[in-house]
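pasting Beta-ketoacyl-[acyl-carrier-protein] synthase III for the record, 332 residues
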Amino acid sequence: MPYAALKSVASYVPKTCIENSAFEPLLDTSDEWIQKRTGIQTRYFATDEEQSSDLGVKAAQIAIERAGITKEDIDLVLVGTLSPDYMCMPSTACVLSAKLGLQNVPSMDILAACSGFIYLLATAKAFIESGMYAHVLIVGAERCSSILDFEDRSTCVLFGDGAGACVVARTENIKESILDVKIASNGQHANYLYTPRTLKNSSFVHAHNTSTQALQMKGNEVFKLAIKTLLKDVEDILQSNALEPKDITYFIPHQANLRIIQAVQNQLSFTPEQVVLTVQKYGNTSAASIPMAMSDIYEQGKLKKGDLMLLDAFGGGLTWGSALVYYGGGQA
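structre below
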C-alpha cells in the first residue's frame, strides 16, 4: 500500500523586518503591549513588488532541491493562501507554477485561512495514496500585509509575510509517512474572522459599496474558541492513533498567539523542548506558519528523519485541523 511522505520542507522570509516599535507612531500601542498580549516581537513584510506567489516560488525551489527531485517530477501543485495574487482568478497556484516553469501540471488553491497547510497535507495525502500522483508540491504563501488595516491595532500588529513549502511523495514505509490528518470547519462562526469583499452593485444606478476589504476579527471570541477547539482536536487525533503527548517529538501549532500556544501546551503537558515556537520572530503568517516553523527546526539541524510531528491549526471559516506526520526527508 502506498503512503504519503513529507520528503522536504523549506521557507522564505522577506528581507524587511518590522519591529513592534515601528507601530508606535501609527497606533496607540507599544512593544510591551504587543509582546504581553501576543508574544510577537518582529514580523517581516514583503516589498510592493513581491506577491504571495513570489514568496511561494522561492520556498518551493528550495523544497524541490531538498527533496532530491527536479521540478519536472512535480505532478500536482497546491497552494494555501488568504492573500492571493488575484481576487478570484487565476489561482495563486497557477501563477506560482508558471513562475516555476511548470506546464501542463494541475494547480489549485485551497482556501482555509490559517488552517490552510493542514488542508494541503490532507489533500496531498489523498492524491498520493489514491495513486493519482507521485510528487505533490504544497505551498503556504502569504502576503498578509496586503489585507491589513494599519489603523486597527487589534489586527495589524499580529500578521507577517512569508512562505513555506514541502514536497509530498509516495513511500512504502509507514514510519516516514503522513500518519493521519483530520480537518473540519464550522461556517456558523464565519463572522469571527473574515475579509469582506467590496461588491459592485448589479445596476449602475446604485452607488458603489465602499466598505473596507481589510481583515476583520473578533479577537476575544477567536481566542476562546481556538483554545477549546485545538485542545479537543489534539486529544482526538492522539487518542485515535493510540498515542500520548510523550510520544511526539515536536508539537508544531499554528503560530498565531503565544498565549494560545501556551494554553494548549500546558493543558496537554507538552514539554518546552517539544514545542516549536516562531511566532515571536514572524508573527502570524497564516497558511505559511507551520511549514515555516518546520523549516526553522530543519535548518537548525534539529529535525531528523523519523521524528513524529503533531501539527495543529485554527483559522477563519472557521476551519481547523491536526496532523501526525513522520518526517520522511533528509537532514540539513
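The longest helix spans residues 219-240.
Residues 27 and 152 are 8 Å apart (CA to CA).
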